[in-house]
Each structure stands twice: as structure tokens, then as C-alpha cells.
Amino acid sequence: MHLDAFNELSAAEAEALLRPCVDADRWIHELISARPFATRDELTSYAMNGIAPFDPQELDAALAQHPRIGERAEGQSKEADLSRGEQASLNLDDDAAARLKVANRNYEQRFDRVFLIRAAGRSTEEILAECERRLDNDEATELAEVATQLREIAVLRLNDLLTK
Q1: Which stretches are transmembrane (predicted)?
Q2: pLDDT tens column, 75-106
Q3: Are 135 and 145 in contact (CB under 8 A)?
Q4: Does residue 38 surpass a pLDDT of 90?
């Protein structure tokens, strides 16, 4: 979709388009309200930096839509399709899959939530290293990192919706 067409969508149409990017009502509604955007860069900058950070409840709701890293998203939803595409480049031989399973378990035991990271453009080794590093975070630092990762995923998905 071209940016001009996005700017002209009804609020309901824009919401339906944006929800697979991130299931966070406030982010979606603020992005819709900020239209029109003059450029794609303006839109993505606003989506990444112009909306207040996600609060813990928004993070929990959005994380419910994300599978564990290294696990195939189930279902036929747009979110599941996007997740499968984002994780498609991971090189998951038996060893890597086992290591990701352990990393996910350690993270979930430490933070009581799924480990979220923008997988697109990252190798399995980078993801494992990030998970290990983030295990040393305190809760507040980790919430901030999760929120940043969620925004990166949302902006990546938003960019994929728009034609150049």
C-alpha cells in the first residue's frame, strides 16, 4: 500500500491494517490520529519514537501474540504469518533449536514472560547472545528492552505494509 492510501484509510480500515504490526490499542490509535504523514520516514519515526513507551499491560497484551523465538507461530492469522516470515531466516539445526529452547526456558523463569527480540536480520547466534545478556537485566531495564524490541518489530511490519 502506498503512503497516500494509508493516510486516506478510514480509522477502522487503518486499525485493521495496523493491528498485526502490534496488538496495542494506544499505539494504533495514536498512529492513526497523527495522520497524514508526508513521508514514509516520518511515519516510521513517529511509530518508533513519537508515541509514549508501552506500559506493562500493553506489553503483556502484545506479547500474547508472539511465539517463543525458534518456535513456529500457529494459526492462520496475519500476526502468525508475519512471525513465521520474521523467523524464517533462523538456521535451526538440532543444536541451535535445543539451545534456543534452553534460552527461552531460562528467560521465562527469570522474567515470567516470553523472550521477545526482533529476529529479522539477526542470526541464531546473535539471538542467543542477546538472550544471555538480557538475563542479567533487572526488571525495569528488561521491560524497556522488551518495549524497544516490540517497537522494532512493529515498525518492521509497518514498513513491510507500505510500498516505496
Answers
A1: none
A2: 565 565 555 555 556 666 778 888 888 999 99
A3: no
A4: yes
**Alpha-carbon separation of residue 99 from 65, 66, 71, 127, 132 (angstroms):** 23, 19, 12, 11, 11
**What confidence tier does 8 reach under pLDDT thresholds 50, 70, 90?**
very high
Q: What cell was used for 153?
A: 518489530
Whether 53 contacts 147, CB under 8 Å: yes
Measuring CA to CA, which residue among 103, 121, 116, 163 is closest to residue 142?
116
| CB atoms near residue 115 (< 10 Å) | 26
Which among 104, 151, 95 has a CA at the least distance from the CA of 132?
A: 104
Q: Return the pLDDT at 79.
A: 62
* Distance between CA atoms of residues 132 and 88, nearest Å: 22
Query: Identity (one letter) of the amino acid at 68?
Result: R
| Exposed / middle / buried, residue 138 (Cβ in 10 Å: 0-12, 13-18, 19+) | exposed
Q: Is residue 67 a contact partner of residue 73, using CB atoms and an 8 Å limit?
A: yes
**Nearest Cα to Cα of residue 90 among 71, 110, 116:** 71
Gyration radius from the chain CA atoms: 16
Report the CATH fold assignment for 3-161.
UraD-like (1.10.3330)
Residue 86 contacts residue 156 (beta carbons within 8 Å): yes
